[in-house]
Amino acid sequence: MVDLNRRTVLGGALAGLAVGALGTTTASAAESTYDGVDWAKFLGAADMLWTKMPTTWYEGPYLGNGFLGSGIYREPGKNAIRFNVQHSQVQDHRPEFGSLFGLARLPIGYFTLEPVGAITAIDWRMDLWNAELKGTITTAAGSLALRAIVHSGDSVLAIEVQPTEGERGFKWVFHPGDAVSPRTDPKFGKPPPAGYLPNPPAVLQASGDATLSVQSLLAGGEHVTAWRETTFGTRRTLYTAVAWSHPQRTAAREALRMVRCVSPLALFALGHRRWWHDFYRRSFLSIPDTRLQSFYWIQLYKFASAARKEAPVMATCGPWLEPTPWPATWWNLNVQLEYWLIHGSNHLELDAVSYALDKFRHNVVDQVAEPYRADSAGIPRTTDMTLLNGGGTGTAGYAVGIPGQDPPTPEVGNLTWALHNVWLSYRHTMDRKLLRDTLFPLLRRAINYYLHFLKPGADGKLHLPPTFSPEYGVNAADCNYDLSLIRWGCRTLLESVRELRIDDPLAGRWQEVLTGLVDYPVDANGYMIGANVPFAKSHRHYSHLLQVYPLYEITWERPEFRELIEKSLNHWVGFEGALQGYTFTGAASISAQMLRGDKADFYLGELMRRFIQPNTMYKESGPVIETPLSASQSVHDMLCQSWGGMVRLFPAIPATWRDISLRDFRTQGAFLLSASREAGVTKWVKVRSEAGAPCVLRPGIPGELAVRDQWGRPKRWRALANGDIQIELGRGEEAIVHRKGDRPDISVGPVTPNGPSAPWGMR
Fold it and tell me: Chain-centre distance of CA 475, in angstroms?
């Protein structure tokens, strides 16, 4: 990680020291107001609160910075509070045992805060604006005032405690974890491969005023947790840092450096807060459903706690490793859903997917079978942080399969789907370098892999041998999962060569595939899994519907497909039993494409009622992070859609959302959109172009329109035959659209809520 610039930190030193005491860190309205929004007050309404003791990761507060993560809850069976210490780079390095054992994320350990007296009450607040946990622990002997952060720019967990007289004897105890894949836990029923051994126990060492837990690895390298405690009067602050190195043994030096370079917490937190304040203010969204609005902003907090561009692509539970059968990164849905929210919320700076696919592209080439490596690439179902799968057989992992062969399972579309995320990042920025250097060459290889297996059938159409539709459990020829990705990939490659002005010898082949590929298999219930494999059982995954969402290859705007889309959606969600949380986020987003805001809202409500935990986390057999994050994208899809070269404002608004405010919502075409809806009517929309791309807008504003620039001068525009408008916008220009004759106030702020709602957390 990159250390904060010391001058940046020291620049606010005096201000930081002025707020050094616990409980005095809340900014004034003037200090937190930006673009007319009092951010401390606005986000404060979404803070998670605890007056009941959390007992699991699904209930308690969490802190993180994409690398270091800490989940906080009661230590089972003890009078103590656990502060987990986990790190997204800490993994094993024995590829011969596959991604789920030999390359698995490894537990580090945890601290327990052990008070003198029995804990009788807590009062905690997760302060989103400052990304700090604050509160008190009341015991039979007194109380402990608490403040904790994981620093936004350093892998350091800082916990400040101010005890009353009777609690001055509280203590911290570190508990090293067993450096073994969490999948080995017998409760998951996943025995490790033959020859797999646990790493040796961690060794505790003293180094001056610091202590280290040194975890050596059988494959070489180490991860080291270092900590030290400082005192100022009766206030005690624990600083702990984690470092990882492989194959070198340099982590101890780095962990000590980080834990010794920290300043007093009041000063140390200044740069941390500044990062978070800048993060939140990149966009603004307010809806009258206060429970869902709070949930949305908590997801942004969660995402920025779990992701950095240079950090590993999120594993199933982000940086907060807990007991799980899934201690790896999952590429057949999880990754894609985890990162969708970065686009609309204007947080492309956290795009780890594009970064990792570019940096580790050699691994997505090396992991297809040797005969195909010259021109192809693929990504397995599961990988480590370098996109390496390892063994790839049995319980060791899931290799890139070969269509028509099994084993290994022929799940071959995951790279193409992951590259759709990269394409979304390109489309939301119009960054031609990303298109030229990352998306195009990797997508060319991913589609090349399919081209090896597409063959004409008796009907003259191109057909695909049996492949696997995640995670239905049956191989199928002409699998809809793969057909949708092939169509999207070929179309995107053709668009790319036109944009990049490349004369590619495969362009004719891509066009042949688009023209000659077999139609999607369909039966009386809608889209099938594949040829001769109907959708006939409860299934959480919408892999057979990717052509509808998120690829938008088949859309509601084409009337001839409406009955098929509706029938397929209803048939999919109609099977109870195996449905999970992301079933309902997918159904919400498909409903939003169908312009059914109330139905999308219903599906999100089902998600909240059935699956979302008190702290907005989510679980199946183990912790998984993608579903709540993808619910944020469902909200985006209700508020704005920009697929197919068209920006659609407020396409799927529930009847109860009468007022809405948006600022700097990012859309495809690299537009930043701000808008206001009052009493169920869109009043105005402002569009700023970052790239000068064609701007076609469906504003949904009733009556005759006026289009002007920020100084009130008319802009050139024209109405299209269907009522949409096309605005001439150059790079850096903006336009404001409103009803002719109106002079709307284009300021943006929180909307009036429909009513109060219970805060997230545990009361």
Answer: 29
